[in-house]
Amino acid sequence: MEALQIFVAIFILALASSLTFASDPSPLQDFCVAINDPKGSGMSSLQILSFFLSYLCLCLMNIQTCTGYESYDLSHSYLSHPFIRHLYSSFSNINSSFFLLLLCLLTENSAKMQSLAKQMTSNFSGLHIRKNTSNTFGSTVTPVNVAQMPGLHTLGISMVRIDYAPNGGLNPPHTHPRASEVLVVLEGTLHVGFVTSNPDNRLISKVLYPGEVFVFPVGLIHFQYNIGNTYAVAFAGLSSENPGVITIANAVFGSNPSINADILAKAFNLDRKMVKNLQSKF
Ligand SMILES: *[C@@H]1O[C@H](CO)[C@@H](O)[C@H](O)[C@H]1NC(C)=O
Ligand SMILES: *[C@@H]1O[C@H](CO)[C@@H](O)[C@H](O)[C@H]1NC(C)=O
Hints:
By secondary structure, this protein is α+β, with helices and mostly antiparallel strands. 33% of the residues lie in helices and 20% in strands.
């Protein structure tokens, strides 16, 4: 009898998922969250049904151990219904972790299917167009990562176009927590650099002319600065579909809510007034 139930569970599970293998060489995001497009993501109704049926089978197999509910006082709520109590208590058993594992597998699987569909229709264009750099820093970054081009999902790569205003257009010091970056200058003259980690904090920098390439290793703080009197443009490839950006000044002085000014005053050896001033600018 038990063997039959296992067979049925496996059979129904087989209907609910197709074989999909994919991986990314780096974590995909800051936090592990569901993909942000609820339409078409998650499970189809067939998958939910088969999933639910397989869960019931598992629960039946495990019924003797589904007794964890005694520790909860459920007597005065709808939760006291025997079926709900049964489900509830199942969660405290070993099969609840199996349940969650299945849920993850199925959600993941349908995310892959969704991305496959989007991959077919990805359509990003306009990277050849010069961007407006009239802003505080005199630079504009145009990213093409998984947010702009869902087809990059699970592929572990992305790219950016960066435009710099003449005479000091700056891509301010920042870091990509999940990607190394390789940059090529197409026009203009850029002073670029990155700083190694503690304790050396060594600045490695260079002046780049058109056609020259520089690499910023993952996680290290880096910048590009237009030292020419002409407009500059560079392209860069990044080793993650979702590299992330932490702009140092914004993270430190522009956090929301603000970091206590006393902390920053001490950390940066500044007086409190100066910190408040900086905080008002980011
Ligand atoms: C791709 O974008 C171009 C211009 O933005 C548009 O003309 C074209 O119809 C789009 N193609 C698809 C398949 O969305
Ligand atoms: C560039 O952006 C600035 C500020 O947003 C705006 O005033 C200006 O008209 C823009 N220039 C062009 C050519 O679009």
